[in-house]
Amino acid sequence: MHIKNQIAVITGASSGIGEATACALARAGAHVILLARNGNKLQLLAEQITASGGEVSIYPVDITDAKAVAQIGNAIVQEIGIPDILINNAGSGQWKHTEDTNPDEAVDMMAAPYFGAFNITHAFLPHMLKQNWGFIVNVTSTAAYFATAGATTYATARWAMRGFNASLRGDLHNTDIHVMLLAAGKVNSPYFENNPDSESRIPKVATLKPFFPILTPEQVAAAIIKGILKNKREIIIPFFMKLTIWFARIFPRPIEWLILQTGPKRKKP
């Protein structure tokens, strides 16, 4: 699929991977539509993209609010057009043990990324089906492939994104709407600044250098662009993480043992 002159909607566009992807798509010639809760940050990013010669529109919205998303979706279609590219990138949530996560927190962690991705896709998919054209990218973490201690709801929400991606691809069989999953390892983004206790819970085996380098948002954005241009089904980065996931499918117990042994320890009662 090409990117030039395409309409691209990006959620979670105010920082991190979303911001970097918006800039990369704009440089490639897309009209980027930025969605996030923080309108001020979106405005600053829009000014940056415009100054670089890009085409951009902003729509502040809480993607976990289905009614608000439906209204924004209709406004975008009427004012700009039907999206050709849809990138479900927004996500949140802390790494916590089950007993340390209250039910309201669990609901919030599932709301973004999973319910937000569903709401956005639900708002635009009928229009995309009418034109029988498009590319949907679902962004998740490599936590979607492993049993990760100390991150029960965070990991579950990422598994949900992986399941949503696979089911959506099946749902769109025999159409010209392509679906891709982008799973990234640890990314140098504001996430860990906003969730300082989460970083210490990452299994040490997943942070070994040079095998598992910390990714930049720009590297993830470049992988997304590459995936769109080459019609990829799934991209896992960094490369050694992809090999680890492949190995875990064949020999799950050794990988699970490594993750649990190098992750957060629970004291025996």
Any chance you could write out the topology, listing elements then pairs?
Elements: E1 7-11, H1 16-27, E2 31-36, H2 39-51, E3 55-60, H3 66-79, E4 85-88, H4 103-131, E5 134-141, H5 152-171, E6 177-184, H6 191-194, H7 217-229, E7 234-237, H8 239-250, H9 252-262
Parallel strand pairs: 1-2, 1-4, 2-3, 4-5, 5-6, 6-7
Brief description of this entry?
With 269 residues, this protein is of the alpha/beta class.
* Record field, number of beta strands: 7
- Cα distance, first to last residue? 56 Å
Rg value: 18 Å
Secondary structure tally, helices: 9
Description:
Helix 4 (103-131) packs parallel to helix 5. It contains nine helices and seven strands; from the N terminus they run E-H-E-H-E-H-E-H-E-H-E-H-H-E-H-H. The protein has a seven-stranded parallel sheet, sandwiched between helices. The N and C termini lie far apart (56 Å). It has one domain: NAD(P)-binding Rossmann-like Domain (Rossmann fold). Strand 2 (31-36), helix 2 and strand 3 form a beta-alpha-beta unit. With 269 residues, the chain is α/β, with parallel strands linked by helices. It has helices at 16-27, 39-51, 66-79, 103-131, 152-171, 191-194, 217-229, 239-250, 252-262, and strands spanning 7-11, 31-36, 55-60, 85-88, 134-141, 177-184, 234-237. 44% of the residues are buried.
